[in-house]
């Protein structure tokens, strides 16, 4: 029978011998960063678009993998058994950081582009708040790993830029031109609507600011964390439905009946993380009941005993099992188990979800990583790439690091 301890060992193996080597192999030593496309058939396109979100997330991943190594969550011997050294993880993070600094960040108008050509020249010069947030996330983690003060300074610059150019009186705006003139938000709108504001952008600004505050203890950032939690509690969370709303007009009025199961279970633990990092008892009292309700409702509504459905759009459930949703489910239920140790169903759910990932989401083919999505029965959906601008080691790599940190080794 699977236990938390056995899951920890299997997750460590997945991280060290599968996920890390896969992404190291996608490093582009000619033009910088990491290659941006691997098809389902495992055909690598070395001249594909390089998403700046993708490269921020890869930089974040290797930075956190190195920090996990330095904290003793795995050893030098573990790394060498997998074919690399612990210090190689920092070198990968530096490779990603240099690409962000020298190519992704716009030196003329500030901020980070949406995407680049394969050679590092700008392709899509949209400045999206979501993208700025992920660069802050990466830079903050790279600063923790490397102690490079320049990285922290760049993260603070992007924080100031978001606060100056990407906000209004009620929340965070979304999409801008290169010169930071507002434009429509197709990039973070889905399901047939065009949203002025999204839960997704707000969540990842919060996530990035949590990391920046954790490594800097900048009280200006801390105050914005409190403000964002107020927005979640008062505008985004729907207490009657025990869920978050997803897409909004300019005044944070919901514009679509959509329940995003993956975002709710991810939000449950990311808000808890922010509360812990901030250490403010008033916000703990305000937010924890919300995160517990989110986790409970997802367990009751979307979890079928082995895996999590994708979303429910206007009453119609999308039953596909998406890679990132499955990864966040493991962490979200582990977090709920830690919060509410009397609720063993959350522990069992995390274990069952990991079993489903092992059996159906991890791609067993040599030279691959995780499938993008599979059907409810676990069979892979064949037209989704293994790597593209959104498909990266952020969710599954983070799941592994969270599991290693949350479960003590025997």
TrEMBL record:
Coiled coil: none annotated. Transmembrane segments: none annotated. One of its GO terms (molecular function) is cellobiose epimerase activity. It catalyses: D-cellobiose = beta-D-glucosyl-(1->4)-D-mannopyranose. It comes from the Bacteria. It comes from Roseburia hominis (strain DSM 16839 / JCM 17582 / NCIMB 14029 / A2-183). Its EC number is 5.1.3.11. Catalyzes the reversible epimerization of cellobiose to 4-O-beta-D-glucopyranosyl-D-mannose (Glc-Man). Keywords: Isomerase. GO terms for biological process: carbohydrate metabolic process. Belongs to the N-acylglucosamine 2-epimerase family. Belongs to the cellobiose 2-epimerase family. This is Cellobiose 2-epimerase.
